Amino acid sequence: MDKELTKTPGVLKAAWLIAVVTIVSKLIGFVRDIVIANCYGASMVSDAYYYAYQILSLSLILLGGVGGPFHSATVAIFSKLIPDINEKPSEEVNRLYSTFMNATIICFIILSVIIFLFPEQIMGLIIAGNSGQMITLAAEHLRIMTPLLLIGGIVGIYYGLLIIYKQFMLPNLSPIIMSLAIIAVVLLVPEDNKGYALAWATTIGAVLQWIIQYPNVRKLGYKLKPVFEFQNNPHFKEICELLFPAVLSSTIGQVHIYVDMFFTSSISEGAWTAIGYANRVFQFPVGILVTAFLVPLFPIFAKLVADKDYDGIRNYFNKGVGVLFFAAIPIIIGILTVGLDAVKLVFERGEFDETASFMVAEALWFLSVSIIPYVFRDSITRVYYSFNDSKTPFLVALSSVALKFLLNWILISKMHFGIGGITLSTSLVTLFNAVILGVLISKKMQMNYKSLFINLLKMIISGTISMAVCWICAVEFNKYIHITNSILFEILKISAIALVCMVVYIPLNLLFKMEYAGELYNRLSAKILRK
């Protein structure tokens, strides 16, 4: 274990690097969303685009993105076959790469052809309570963006290889390419009444994502050859055993989204767009945290499992998840106190009005409570993957589909919660998955959650007090601060509440002797004294 603990500075350095790159990527993504919101608002056109994109994002983001099944399977298997990342891959590794890549290309070409030929039938299954015009429009968007399906799997393998070789920058920067392509095309084609330019821009961005990854993978020594060892390559069999349940698990997650789409389409025009924007706001801080810590930790988990160093896994897991919990509490406080202000600041201009802002904020409030189970679920899932077990996460996700449908039916159809009911059900399902996965990991190894959850309890107490103080300050700010410039008002209010939160939250955690706050205080003190 001691040997592995010496890797901690490297992990922290990589985490900071990934966090910075991810922040840049998310900020440009926000600019993209602002441009889209300004041009299309929360309308039928934007709904059609996001309905279609949601299907194809299964490949580009869920399957092929950082942390997705293709990235995870590549890291879990290839990292054990590459003893020295400074050397070119062996012939065995290259043949495995070609076999994996060829299988991916064949499968996704078949799926792409099916989607391209039957887009209206597919959208008709998902969109309920809308006119044929919506289905036709969404189907055309789906047809235009079909190439995303193939590109997602390929890029996912590229991501995994680059991360094994500690090239963290490119995989986390590449989403910027799509964002920039969308921004450029939407601004160049302002009179896009049906959103077709937006769909084409998304496709162009995905192609560019693939193009910028390829030279680095080639430079590492990986060359695609006509190798099809689907039957007699044991390592490809390992990939399949890990990949297929992981793909199914992500697909089940997408089924949850399709259930949401079905119920959302009966709420109001623009509701699905609002939920999409709420998820983007949610993913800005949470995605940065999870990506920054789990991307460098995952290869370490895989190596620790190979070495059967379970103490090392427990240590890294508790430290990593503890830090995520510590950072998550202020995010929840911020969303609940100034979430509406943040949405107004980012989106409210052009076609995006005050009603749309409130729709997004409402969805965001109920989604915020899922942050704690979200980071735990994603972290414990990486431990399962390190054991080459993706079946358990799949079965847990599958078991939650009925729960998702039931909760949506109760909250939307019976209790008429509206948009908030959709995201509240998501939070409850995330909690369910986190609890079940946390319990079932005992079949692999015994985790030590005691210190983790004692620290979480301290954080929650500190967070509750901080939340009350921030809420009072936010109310008083609205009473006594009057600025005609709404943008300046929102910036000042958000900044003031963030400062209050930190001033209250961190000292309270120090008072409760919460170790992560102590470590943060010691690090900052040491840096200040050095200066």
Descriptive notes:
With 531 residues, the chain is an all-alpha fold. The model is unreliable at 1-9 (pLDDT under 50). The two termini are 34 Å apart. The chain has one domain (2-448). It is built from 21 helices and no strands. Helix 4 (69-81) runs parallel beside helix 8, helix 15 (354-368) runs parallel beside helix 18 (419-440) and helix 20 (486-511) crosses helix 21.
Main β sheet profile: none
Shape: globular
Order of helices and strands: HHHHHHHHHHHHHHHHHHHHH
- Counting structural domains, the number is 1
SS summary, helix count: 21
Integer-rounded radius of gyration: 23 Å
What is the helix fraction of residues, given as a range?
A: over 70%
Mean pLDDT: 82
The parts where pLDDT drops under 50 for at least 5 residues are 1-9
Beta-strand share of residues:
under 5%
Main attributes of the structure:
about 525 residues; about 80% helix; disordered N terminus
